[in-house]
Amino acid sequence: MPSHYMSKTEAVAFLTDKLRLQLTDSELASLSLALLQKICTAFVAHVPFSTIVHLSGPTDQLHTRDLPTLEQVKHNGLNLKGGLCYELNVFLHWLLAALGFSVEFLMAKGYSCHVYNHALNYVTIDGARYLVDGASYPLVTETLICLDFQGEVSPVSRHSIWEVRVKRTVMDGEPALLLQFRWTDNVAIPHWKVPVDTDGWADVNEFILRPRSLEELYAPLKRAYTDATIAPVINRVFCFNFPQGKFLNVRNTSLHTEDDQRRLVMRPSTHSPEELVQLVMTHYGDHFQVEVVEQAVRNFVVLCEGAFSPTFM
Predict the structure, then answer these.
(1) Strand partners, 235
(2) What separation in angstroms does the CA of 154 have from each of 39, 56, 160?
(3) Sequence-ordered list of residues with C-beta below 8 angstroms from that of 157, at least 6 positions apart, any chain
(4) d(Cα 299, Cα 205) in Å, to the nearest integer?
(5) Which of 44-48, 142-146, 186-190, 196-200 has the lowest mean pLDDT?
């Protein structure tokens, strides 16, 4: 990982000015699990996972979409523009590395995809490896998950509206890990046909715990960013983050939130492009210009037939 992509001065300024963390010199020097937890919690609160920029190009050039350049990753990260897993987890990797954390990239196959389509990280502290994913749906950073657990399945932990665990598996003939989630006491999202086992667990990301280079991420993620059969989200309006630790998600044409009892609340869907633009701007207007959102919504309608149908997922 090229060290010049972010300096420690830039990293500390980002924590203070954009993530609104007030950290002492001793905290920053500690490189502790507590510090990592603070940073990850603030990151998912302020930096949205979002398809808006990726979806906002000229309609006749959507077939030429590509991974952002490293300069764009840094610019969008520093300015809270968010992005998909490549932007978010590469930027988060640089941020943590600049502070001195021991951080490594991972690649995963998400939601039973047959090829790699997700980038994530792990951080080693005091010999233990912790999952660090700033672009995970479901949330996995409310309480950082140690990947060096005993037995076949990690302890179950609560993250926003989900329960999460990691279990051991075999992937491509090698020992691997499988992240799973389960809906809590609220209802699951209608029409989302994610397979679940008899105990309600759904598979999220499957990965081998092997460090990857930034260069190794490029080809698999380029494919995921350009092929909607691998990553359907690239053609949809999809933004989420966790302000004040609570789930906020513009999902296609509707708004999903989390109430004070940590239950999922699904608001009535919008019924037109104009209403959807207003919905995105209401909740993410600090991150995007309205012209960018309008173009993203126009492309969403072109790419997704029946986008405003009540059963569209």
Answers:
(1) none
(2) 23, 40, 18
(3) 142, 143, 145, 163, 164, 165
(4) 28
(5) 186-190
| Nearest residue to 294 (alpha-carbon basis) of 58, 82, 76, 56 | 56
Rounded mean pLDDT of 112-136? 97
125 close to 31: Cβ distance less than 8 angstroms: yes
For residues 44 and 144, is the Cβ–Cβ distance under 8 A? no
Question: If you write DSSP's letter for every residue of 1-52 in order, what string do you get?
Answer: --GGGS-HHHHHHHHHHTS-----HHHHHH--HHHHHHHHHHHHHHS-EE-T
The β-bridge partners of 205 are 110
AA letter at 38? K
The pair phi, psi for residue 41, each rounded to 5°, is -65, -45
From the DSSP assignment, how many helices (H) and strands (E) are in the chain? 8, 12
Print burial letters for 202-224: b (CB count within 10 Å at least 16), e (below 16): bbbbbbbeeebebeebeebbebb
Closest to 17 (Cα-Cα) out of 41, 53, 46, 58: 46
Helix, strand and coil in the chain, % to nearest 5: 35, 25, 40
Q: Alpha-carbon distance 96 to 112, whole Å?
A: 29
- Report the alpha-carbon distance of residue 195 to residue 168 in Å, rounded: 19
The one-letter amino acid code at 189 reads I
Q: State the pTM of this model.
A: 0.96
Quote the percentage of the chain above a pLDDT of 70: 97
Distance from C-alpha of 149 to C-alpha of 168, rounded to nearest angstrom: 10
pLDDT band at residue 193, thresholds of 50, 70 and 90?
confident
Q: Which amino acid is at 172?
A: D
Determine the Cα–Cα distance for residues 23 and 188; give it in Å rounded to an integer.
Answer: 38
SS3 assignment, position 198: coil
Please report where in the chains the tokens 């991972």 appear, as a residue.
106
